[in-house]
Amino acid sequence: MPFQDFAQTLPGVVAVAFLPGFALATLLAPTWRAWQRLAMAPGLSAGFIGIYGLALHDVHVPFEPITVLPVLLVLGVGAAVRWRWTEPQAAAEHPWWLPIPALLVGVTSAAVFAWALHGQVLPPDWDAPTHAGVVNAIVRTHDVLPLFPIPLEGSDFVRARPGFEATAAVVSWLGAPSPAGAMAPIITASLVVLPLSLTLLTLEATGSVALAAVVPFFAIGLIFPSGQAIIGRFPETVDSTLIVPFIVALLRVIRGRTTRQNAILLGAITASIWVIHGLEAITALVVACGLLAAAVVQVVRSSPRTGLIRLGIALGAAAAGAVAVTVITRIPYVPPLTRTQPAQFVLSTAHMPLKPHHILVLIAQTDL
């Protein structure tokens, strides 16, 4: 998009796509370092706004500035009070400059993405028009679960995970050139902080400052996340900012580090993942299965009862977050198809049994 449009949208991106998530992380886990809370801010912001939008939908209250912005302000005030009354943290165990290399990598990735979209409102590829249509419909109907018409089928479509689109709608209220035009700046800003997750995961897994500072540079040039952003898979990109915080919160619960605080944060992270896209919770478990297994074995060996209790708390918190979002997601009635088109070809599956690895591939490629 043109630079002037990006500059016009940036204040809204900071106020809506970063500050609410940072405030929520501070409210729930004030002992996490500021840069660690910043790493999860885009995902928690989209999660909070999406869940609040679902709650408004359930009680038939319009999703509009007068019902949303005051709640975000209250969240910020609550976080400030919580931070002020939290006991002073011990001196940082790691140097203050540790997140700077990751931020440099993030700025590089964001600059490449922004330059690639220079002069375009949206990426000229797959998913972006769908997300843009949903954002426009949210602004038009004042509802995070609008019916999106599909004329060729004579029916409608409802996106049941509206966290990202709802956030883009709120950003558009604060100065974006258009509702759909708020999406690319949110992704650009998210790309800046995404490498912080690499620093956080490396530090949590190894405790090495040198490795934590160097590892983000190996992400330069990888197909993820730039590839996902270019083809318009925006919810996945925002949700990815929560993968490592999910893993770290899970590890800290298992290891008994401020268990209650991290369990609550884990539930909030899972709920946010669930309302934005959903599959990133599975991604987190796949990425960290070895690390989590080692942590569980270590704790269970030292105290089986304590280890199993902590594991139960962690799994219960994650499940509670997913169940809560599922319960409050009340999808409106979608009329049945009134038009159908015959298939262009018939594919016989008599000799093509579906195998487990086929199912896994389909799950991995599914865009919820």
Number of helices, counting only DSSP H or I runs of 4 residues or more: 18
Number of strands: 2
Helicity, as a percent range? 55-70%
Order of helices and strands: HHHHHHEEHHHHHHHHHHHH
Distance between the termini: 26 Å
Q: What value does the average pLDDT take?
A: 87
Low-confidence stretches: none
Largest sheet: 2 strands, antiparallel
What is the percentage of strand-forming residues? under 5%
In which order are the strands of the major sheet placed? 1-2
In one word, what is the shape?
globular
Give me the secondary-structure category: mainly alpha
Rg over alpha carbons: 21 Å
Secondary-structure map:
Layout: H1 3-28, H2 34-39, H3 41-58, H4 65-85, H5 100-116, H6 128-141, E1 148-150, E2 155-157, H7 163-173, H8 183-193, H9 196-206, H10 209-214, H11 226-230, H12 234-239, H13 243-255, H14 259-276, H15 280-287, H16 289-302, H17 304-328, H18 356-365
Antiparallel strand pairs: 1-2
Helix pairs in contact: 1-3, 1-4, 1-7, 1-8, 3-7, 3-14, 5-8, 6-7, 9-13, 13-14, 13-15, 13-16, 13-17, 14-17, 16-17
